[in-house]
Amino acid sequence: MQGKIRLALTKGRLEKDTVQLLEKAGLNMETIKNPQRKLILDIPGYPLEIILLKGSDVATYVEHGIADLGVVGKDILLEKPKPVYEVADLGFGACRMAVAGETSLCPDNKKLLRIASKYPRIAREHFESKGQSVEIIEQQGSVELAPLMGLSDVIVDIVETGNTLKANGLIVLEEILKISARLIVNKVSYKTRRIEVNALIDLLEKQVKIRREE
Ligand SMILES: Nc1ncnc2c1ncn2[C@@H]1O[C@H](COP(=O)(O)OP(=O)(O)OP(=O)(O)O)[C@@H](O)[C@H]1O
Ligand SMILES: O=P(O)(O)OC[C@H]1O[C@H](OP(=O)(O)OP(=O)(O)O)[C@H](O)[C@@H]1O
Description:
Elements: E1 5-10, H1 15-24, H2 30-33, E2 40-42, E3 48-53, H3 55-63, E4 69-73, H4 74-79, E5 85-89, E6 95-102, E7 112-117, H5 120-128, E8 133-138, H6 145-149, E9 154-159, H7 163-167, E10 170-179, E11 181-185, H8 187-192, H9 194-213
Parallel strand pairs: 1-3, 1-4, 7-8, 7-9
Antiparallel strand pairs: 2-3, 4-11, 5-11, 6-9, 6-10
The protein binds adenosine-5'-triphosphate and 1-O-pyrophosphono-5-O-phosphono-alpha-D-ribofuranose.
Residues 10, 12-14, 54-55, 73, 75-76, 93, 95, 158, 160, 179 line the site of adenosine-5'-triphosphate.
């Protein structure tokens, strides 16, 4: 007898929407609404265990089969690709990956463009696909500061409301891609636990569809 299905959730920005989606799908999410710092949570009445992780760790847990499924931002799947199945676009966590900089900048005139980013792979691939040489300066946060301080010419970062750019006098120069939360599945679980995995995928997909039509 195999145990419960394990679902890895991204803590932080995606958490509230994920919990709401699961709740609408009929799951009792009371334990997760009041986790008291617990990172492993049982869902009463459904053979499911939820673990809470940082986004990039969600993909790692699913890759290694520790979690059967996971909810993670598309940005993370593109920045650190893993051999997992991406089975659904959950719609929430919507934002865009963009090139941003100061209004006065003409990046096209630069031979070597200096880019500050928490997403070095996405940034490099985007510019190299256009034949632009780049120096990537990897950042851990407060990326908007880099062009203001002269560390870089532009940034590649997530833009959601645009408030952070605006507050720091930066503008979107180019949109790279749209981002949203994705449901991912371990490749082995997809085959060996097909019935339970598909049941959960179906539950969530139904709710995503209802949400889209609302
Ligand atoms: N304004 C935003 N900034 C960053 N991520 C956003 C934003 N809006 C939606 N997202 C999505 O939410 C996901 C989770 O972001 P969040 O910042 O909560 O966690 P994280 O990636 O672990 O970052 P951190 O290390 O800053 O805590 C991102 O991977 C992205 O897909
Ligand atoms: O368009 P907005 O709604 O303003 O959101 C975008 C901002 O949010 C994220 O930063 P985060 O809050 O994660 O801070 P950090 O990167 O400095 O850690 C992102 O890196 C942008 O700075």
